[in-house]
Specification:
The chain is mainly alpha-helical. Helix content is about 65%, strand content about 5%. Helix 1 packs across helix 8, helix 2 packs across helix 8 and helix 5 packs across helix 9. The protein is globular.
Amino acid sequence: MRIRILLSTIVLTALCCGFSLPAHSIMLVSRSQEVSIGKQVEASMIKEYGGLSKDKALTERVARVGKQVGQISPRQDITYTYKVVNSEEVNAFAAPGGPIVITQRLAKMLKTDGELAFVLAHETGHIAAQHGRKAINQALIAQNVAALLLRNSGDAMRIGANVMYTLYTRGYSRDQEYEADNYGYQLMTKAGYNAEQGIKALAKLGIKRTSGVDKYLSTHPDIPDRIDRIAKMSNIPDDRKKELIDKAQAEK
């Protein structure tokens, strides 16, 4: 329990203060450690969300579309996996080193393969950009506990999993979400899907804007802002954007 509390404090300190590594900083978390931590985090998420979905068709669809985006990710030193968990929550999560988990409800909400491709490509982007791996590295360096990582691989697993747990509950930063959206757009279109489906996928997550203090406290960008960025990248005019949003809301 003390380790979990300590690591929660570490990662929140590092992330909330906007701590970032200088370009010359050493990556202390090896690829093998990243993969091991990711597998542990994935197992925890599957358990937390009630196990894997028993919907064979949905599971196969997610695996098929996930493979399409994963195989064209610019990062190919790890293996991407795409699994569906038996949950009625609306969520998807990327663990370090390759695992991506999406809830059954969200997967079913995404009616077209294009919509699903954007969400899975967004999560793939978090891994390609090494957001989880860097968060673990940053937290360790910020609190000068890197020696633990180098001393014992078991310590690395525990520390990494606790950092990812805190990151999971708190969310990624605005810049990281935007970067993952960039990957989402690039990978889905490269895989042959229309960017309009990315707008629909985002609109199904909700289009309410935060305001005032809430906006500044929120770590995630407003979905309307994310939609605007995708529309701009793909040259979708405002009237068509509105049509897509309205259609997505009606399909929820």
